[in-house]
Automatic annotation (TrEMBL):
Gene Ontology MF terms: triacylglycerol lipase activity
Organism, as annotated: Beauveria bassiana (White muscardine disease fungus)
GO annotation terms (biological process): lipid catabolic process
Keyword set, alphabetical order: Hydrolase, Signal
UniProt-recorded name of the protein: Secretory lipase family protein
Family recorded in the similarity comment: Belongs to the AB hydrolase superfamily. Lipase family.
UniProt KW Hydrolase keyword: yes
Amino acid sequence: MRISAAFLAAALAGTAHAIPASALLHRAGPTLPSKDSFYFPTGDLSSHQPGAILQQRPPPAAVAAFGLVAAKLNRTQQLLYRTSDAHGRPIATVATILIPHNADLGKLLSYQIAVDAASIDCAPSYALQQGSERGPLAGTLLSQAEFLLIEAALEQGWAVVVPDFQGPQSSYLANTLAGYATLDGIRAALASTATTGIRSDARVAMWGYSGGSLASQWAAELQPSYAPELHVAGAAVGGTVPDVASVIKAINGQPLAGFIPTGVLGLVSQYPEAAPLVDDALRPEAKQLFYSPLKQCLAANAAGFLYKDVLGMFKDRDFLLKNEVLVRISQENSLGKTTPKIPLFWYKSTMDEVSPVGDSDRLVDKYCDEGADVEYVRDVLSNHGSYAVIGAPLAFSWLKKVMNGKDDVPRKGCSKKTQLSGVLDSTQFEVLPKLIADALLDLLGKDVGPI
């Protein structure tokens, strides 16, 4: 991975001087979602079906790589659509539709970005726009970096929908909501033919890593009951996070301890009965820091809680793991409630420091015992962050076959493989050079899409 990541970073950095100056001119940024009325519809949402488009518009600013360089797309559109919160009540959220040049509008990828934040001002629909504020420590930069993987799909000619799956309150870890919003984002995209050209019968796939995998997997588990009319050809999920409580134990006091307060605050937005319990349980001197994720994004949260003993911020350090209300909420938002009918490509580091690989192993076994179609690949020499890079070419190669219906992919049944390192996989050499070349050419002003 270090080879792939370093090469990609160096290649992109090396082109910075060649980016046209006009692409880097200062522009007033788009309005923050928290201050943008588009995100907050009026009227009775219950009169609309899940996935119904309530409003739509072109994004206020161009979609841009790293928030700086406008991508030359054929068309972009923001859809405000009806979905459901964690309790099935109607809410609205936004999806961004990206249409490349020379598009095959019979293919649609739903890409779930790992937002991992408790502020709506970190939403993908905002973060992907040119001139968007990144907040402290370039807070939305990681969301913007995922646009490089989205570009890989666009260069295949696929239409892409990127949902704000955490909803209007940025309810991180409220995973039922995330699944609903992902499925309804697909519904909305398929219903947007008049403005986007996407065919209503387009072949659909999903992709997400880490927080994006949560939304994708929950969508897969919920699809048979919530959106049975949707046919999703396959979903690629990596850096999977099956169990919320297990993550708390694994990351407390570690580099990514900031996921703990962010997740608690995200869940509290959907489970208000937990709010006074959390507040009363916190040490008074810890409250200001603990609530800081409400006003910042992923990178700032990671920095602010680096190696922090978050459990020690509570009067009882076992509070999050033993309080009956918190335990119930954690269990409600952990995977394994049902078995997906959507075929899965599942990629996971055996050294994942965020979510222990054993949790994924057990859930894969459960899915397989219950008849799911799963291709499970484990990587030995990576960790949670590095496998986001290493595993991407493998996932993308699988998605291409799914979209094109080739090589008997997805396969029926289950397969499991553990490899030393995905860096050595031949797929890297088949996929990565084109991915890098396309990203560089797009940065330099090429029309985004297949030539």
